[in-house]
Structures are given as C-alpha cells and as structure tokens.
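1st attempt posting a full record on here, be nice pls
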Amino acid sequence: MLTSSRFAYTQARLQVRHGLRLNEQQWRHLESQQGLANFLHVASESGMSDWLAGLHADDSIHILEKSFSKHFRDYVEQVSHWQPAQWRKATLWISALPDLPLLENIRNRGEVPQWLSDDEELGPLLEVSDDALVQRLALTRYAPLTATWHSTTSMLESWRTHWKECWPDTSAKALAGVESVEALILRHRGSFMELKTHATAAARSELSKQLGLQFRRLSQQPAAVFAHLGLVALDVERLRGNVSSRALLLNSVAAKQ
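the predicted structure (as tokens):
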C-alpha cells in the first residue's frame, strides 16, 4: 500500500499545472476573440499554450482534431510518469478514454472523421475484416478492449473493467477517493446525455467545479490525479470546440469565395 507521502511529488507537479488553468473570466476573454488566427494568437499567450503547439490558422480541421488528440495522449503519459509506479498503468489507460466513441464507431462500421486514417494506431483498424481488425487492435494500447470486442458490452464498460484491473493494492481511503471521482464523472455523463444543447455548457461548468473540489479534497491521493485529468479533459474539450468552430467558419467562408 502507498501513503500520501508517496504522492507529494505528484501533487506538487499537478499543482503547477492546475495553476495554469484559465478561470472563467479568462475563458470569456479568449472566447470573445473573432477569427481563428486571432483566437490562436491570444490562446497561445495563455495557460493553454502547450495545447496549441504546432497549430496554425490555415491547418485543416482534420489536422487540428488530430493534434488535440495527440496532445492529450502525450499529456496523460507525462502525468503517469509523475505517479508512483504502482499507479502508472491505471493512469496511462486514461489516454484511451476520449477515443472510445471512435472505437465504438469503428466496431459498428459507422462514420469516422477523415483524420483518423492518418492516425498511427486507429488508422490501421479502418476498412479491414473483423478478424484483421481485432488482430491489429491487439497490437495497440487498446488491446484490453479485444476481450469484449464482439460482445454487446459498451466500450466504456470494457474500458472501466480494465481500468479497475489496473488499480494496485491500496488503502480503503485511496480506493474510496478514486471511486468518488469515477462516480462523479459517470453521473455527469448520464445526465449530460439527457440535456438540451443550450444546457450543456452549464453542466460542464458544474462538473469542472465539482472536480476542482475533489482535486483539493483528495490532495496527495491517487484520486487527485484522475480529478486533474478530468479537469484537463474539460479544458481541452472547450478549447477544441472553440478552435473547431472557427476553423469550420473559416473553411465555409473560403468555399464561398
């Protein structure tokens, strides 16, 4: 088992990153910027600058989407190295979470974004037979999902099953903390799917508030890492939405000229 002292280094690193998060006033200032180029310029001078590395206003929407996905994967990997070794596997598995809708569409032969064909891991899963798909999936970081690939089990449930298998032997207190973060996010997901579009921003804001409270309450526990990654995912989702909407508008204007 691990004591909170083992997480002191982890917490110190998380606090630095947590301090870079934009507050609501900063978000509103950023979101008031017109045009993609201006938005990227202002955002690049904020705490979100690392997430925009390598991006340009004339990049295609597919390049932008692929970049955000890669940045999140890389960040989760970085955070996993701050963790005590026993928790690194569970932390790394978080990087697969945003890709579950894509994997669900691949499994169901549904529509996928164009940029996916250039993705090193997901691209090879496209336009192949079911058997070949599972074989290729087994060679990726998504390999644990092969166990239920041909079942009716949702990608999320498969992901959760493996995530819990990655948890090390730990104290009841630490376990309760991780489970509380998971429960909070699952409650949000369940209610979010029922909301009208105009209510989603408020729901995300409330989740961010609750995760922030858990990040502080569960300081120097493994749960603080997962609360932090939840907050980061919300911030990146908001940034990504702002960038994508401006890129689509720019493309629409260019197409009419």
